[in-house]
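Hi everyone, sorry if this is the wrong subforum. Our group has a chain we'd like a structural model of before ordering constructs, and none of us has done structure prediction before. Sequence below.
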Amino acid sequence: KRLLQIKHAIKLMEATMSADNNYIIRKDAIRLKFLMITEEEWKLDLTNMLTIFDEEEENIVDIDEELEIIITANGGKFKLSQPQNTDNLVEKVKENLYKALDHYWDTPLDCSLIAMLLDPRCKSMKKLNSWERDKAIDLLREKYDLLSIRNESITNL
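Answer:
Right subforum, don't worry. Here is the predicted structure as tokens:
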């Protein structure tokens, strides 16, 4: 469920990172594309299968008792002086994901939309809603018109 909610953002981030001038960010975009679920995998609807894991993650009641059982089973080799705090763990993970997205996704939205429109891999723009698609096309027209006006003024000099 959560993966479906951020699918669009990840795909847009991948396109943005691919268009970045920084080599390291473009390299990260390639890694992200490699790790990302493919369109065929989305069509297989693996999210139903992953839902089981998501539900189990949310239903963990007492992780300290489970950890104690594991430690006992291993002959007490693991010694923790204090139990680990798992309160708000999901929120902390979300916050770190947001920080990572913010770090790599500092390109203005307008530039991202134009980059997606010009990228042959994203040209159909199926990942965008109609408002974003129209905005990208309008932005590209504005940039083209501005460039045409500049070129005309240069040739008229």
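For your construct planning: Residues 108-157 form one domain. The mean pLDDT is 73.
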